[in-house]
Amino acid sequence: MYLIHAQLVLPKDSLIPDGVAPEALRLALPEERVEHVSLHPKGPRGPVLGVYLLAESLAQAEERTASLCERLLARHPGLAGWSMRRAEAAFLAPLGHGLLGPPVRPTSGPVQRAE
C-alpha cells in the first residue's frame, strides 16, 4: 500500500468546499485500487489530498493518484479553477529519527542513568 500526497492549488480567495475527500473516493475507479482518501486543508504549501492505494510500484501509485485528482478537479463543481501541483509519495523519516534524518544527538552506546 502506498500513501501519495496530491498537492492542490486554490485560486486566490477561494475556499475548500465540503466533501472533497469522499467525492474523490467515490470517483476512484475499481482498477485504481484506492482504499482511503483524506484532505489536509492547511498543508504548508496549500491543501493536500492524501490517497492510500494498492499498486504494483510507486510510479503506478503516483500515476493513479494524479489521474484520480484530475478527474476530481474536472467533475467537482466546487473545485472550478483549482489545479494539482504534484502527486508524489509522502516521505516519512524512520521511527526515532528527526524530520529528515537521524536525531540531533544520536547515542553511540547504552544509555547510563545518573545516580
How would you portray this structure in words?
It is a single chain. This protein is 23% helix and 24% strand. With 115 residues, it is α+β, with helices and mostly antiparallel strands. It has a four-stranded antiparallel sheet with strand order 2-3-1-4, with helices on one face. A hairpin with a 7-residue loop joins strand 2 (34-40) and strand 3.
SSE map:
Layout: E1 2-9, H1 20-27, E2 34-40, E3 48-53, H2 58-75, E4 83-89
Antiparallel strand pairs: 1-3, 1-4, 2-3
Strand content: 15-25%
Q: Taking all residues together, what is the mean pLDDT?
A: 84
Class of secondary structure makeup: alpha+beta
Radius of gyration from the alpha-carbon trace, in angstroms: 18 Å
Kindly summarize this structure in a few lines.
The protein is of the alpha+beta class and 115 residues long.
